[in-house]
Amino acid sequence: MFDRLRDEQPGCAEKVIAISSELTQPELGLTKEDQDKSMESIDIVFHGAATIRFNESLRDAMQLNVIATRQLLHLAQKMKKLEVFVHVSTAYANRDRKNTEEIVYPPPVDPRKLIESLE
Ligand SMILES: CCCCC/C=C\C/C=C\CCCCCCCC(=O)SCCNC(=O)CCNC(=O)[C@H](O)C(C)(C)COP(=O)(O)OP(=O)(O)OC[C@H]1O[C@@H](n2cnc3c(N)ncnc32)[C@H](O)[C@@H]1OP(=O)(O)O
Ligand SMILES: NC(=O)C1=CN([C@@H]2O[C@H](COP(=O)(O)OP(=O)(O)OC[C@H]3O[C@@H](n4cnc5c(N)ncnc54)[C@H](OP(=O)(O)O)[C@@H]3O)[C@@H](O)[C@H]2O)C=CC1
């Protein structure tokens, strides 16, 4: 796949700009400059940063996988060119359902209440 990409789009690597982020920090630890740049130029967000540890504390799991995702959604709402926000979730969501449709199901617990209970 990457060989084909390099053949067909030789300059593609130049489009990749790494910026530093920390999901546990306010504003995801992004510098003001990186935030401003993101607001102007990003059209697609792929969000796959998470903890995948089964024995993570509930507080850390919530911070990394729920609160940080909400923060990123808030940032994405300010991105002027945003077309798509893709969140890589997990195979383990809604596993109590026999059939899972491509819809957003109401959460079993109000996430705001869960976040409040951790604070
Ligand atoms: C196309 C056909 C498809 C057919 C599909 C069929 C069936 C599908 C079935 C399932 C589908 C699953 C799809 C998965 C996608 C979901 C996406 C996810 O996010 S799943 C999350 C995955 N997470 C993990 O695998 C992490 C698991 N590990 C942990 O949570 C923790 O490590 C732990 C096991 C709880 C242990 O924690 P502890 O603090 O006690 O120890 P360490 O973390 O330091 O680890 C100790 C030791 O174990 C090694 N380790 C840890 N995890 C794994 C692992 N998953 N596999 C192998 N080894 C592991 C770790 O490296 C350490 O080793 P060492 O001591 O040598 O350093
Ligand atoms: N792998 C798979 O088969 C599947 C994965 N998923 C989902 O995709 C997501 C990612 O999984 P996977 O790629 O396997 O996990 P990894 O652990 O390999 O990657 C997690 C990523 O999140 C980043 N990250 C973790 N903590 C922080 C933090 N505090 N601040 C900033 N970045 C952080 C890590 O950055 P760094 O490396 O710099 O620490 C890393 O790039 C999860 O939500 C998982 O459930 C869903 C289906 C299948």
Write out the strand line-up for the largest beta sheet, numbering strands in chain order: 1-2
β-strand percent reads 5-15%
Report the biggest beta sheet as strand number plus sense, adding barrel if it closes: 2 strands, parallel
What small molecules does the structure contain? ligand LBKI3ST6, NADPH dihydro-nicotinamide-adenine-dinucleotide phosphate
β-strand number = 2
Order of helices and strands: HHEHEH
* Envelope shape: globular
Please state the structural category.
mainly alpha
CA distance, first residue to last residue? 45 Å
Task: Tell me the Rg in angstroms.
Answer: 17 Å
Q: What average pLDDT do the residues reach?
A: 92
InterPro entries: FAR, FAR_NAD-bd, NAD(P)-bd_dom_sf
Domain Thioester reductase (TE): 11-112
GO cellular component, one term: peroxisomal membrane
Protein name: Fatty acyl-CoA reductase
Descriptive notes:
This protein has one domain. Strand 1, helix 3 and strand 2 form a beta-alpha-beta unit. The longest helix is centred in the middle third of the chain and has 20 residues, at about 60-75. It has helices spanning about 1-10, 30-40, 60-75, 110-119; strands at about 45, 85. A two-stranded parallel sheet has the order 1-2. The protein is about 40% helix and about 5% strand. NADPH dihydro-nicotinamide-adenine-dinucleotide phosphate binds near residues 22, 23, 50, 51 and 52. Ligand LBKI3ST6 binds near residues 52, 54 and 90. InterPro entries: FAR, FAR_NAD-bd, NAD(P)-bd_dom_sf.
Q: Descriptors for this entry?
A:
mainly alpha, two-stranded parallel sheet, 7% strand, globular, binds ligand LBKI3ST6, binds NADPH dihydro-nicotinamide-adenine-dinucleotide phosphate, transmembrane, peroxisome, membrane, NAD(P)-bd_dom_sf, alcohol-forming very long-chain fatty acyl-CoA reductase activity
